[in-house]
Amino acid sequence: MLLLTMRMIKIGFRRGAALLAGGLALQFAATAQAQVYRCTDANGNKLYTDMKKGNCELIDSGPVAPRPPAASALIPSVRPNSPAASGAAAATPPPSPSNFPRVDTSQQRARDDDRRAILNEELRAEEKKLADLKTVFKNGEPDRQGNERNYAKYQERVGQMRDDINRTERNIEALRREIANVR
Asked: What is the pTM of this model?
């Protein structure tokens, strides 16, 4: 496919598109294990087909190698009530490789403390932003600005303010969840 795409660039889009279509036809025809013919019409255009008509030459007639199984077929399934499932639940996670980098407990605690401090600072900033937005919003009736003689512009700004308040509230919820997850 990459070769066909590169040829499209070299020879122009129109002829390249025909090559790409031909390549796709080859691919689909090959997966169906059919014979593929390259035919040339009176104008010199090439056509790929599974039926021989006129000036055609056989391109591929051999079977295609089988495709590898899907990823889900490679993962063994364990039924919930089977002995393997109860043993897997009680077993500890597999050990890390010996060359896997280890972090000292005190160093990890310091990293967690730094993370918590950063998240708390972000939470305070979002809470302040929310308070400011609600002050300007005035329960859905903010003051009209001089350039908002048209009521639709005013409604658009109120809607934007409402969206900003909702987004900030979601950010605060997410930050609180994240802080709760820090050990």
From this structure: 0.44
Please, are residues 30 and 60 in contact by the beta-carbon 8 Å criterion? Answer: yes
CA–CA distances in Å: residue 177 to residues 54, 55, 140, 171, 172: 71, 70, 28, 10, 9
Domain boundaries, the chain: 2-60, 105-181
- Tens digits of residue pLDDT in 96-127: 777 788 889 999 999 999 999 999 999 999 99
Is residue 37 classed exposed, middle or buried when 0-12, 13-18 and 19+ CB atoms within 10 A define those classes? buried
DSSP bridge pairs for 60: 36
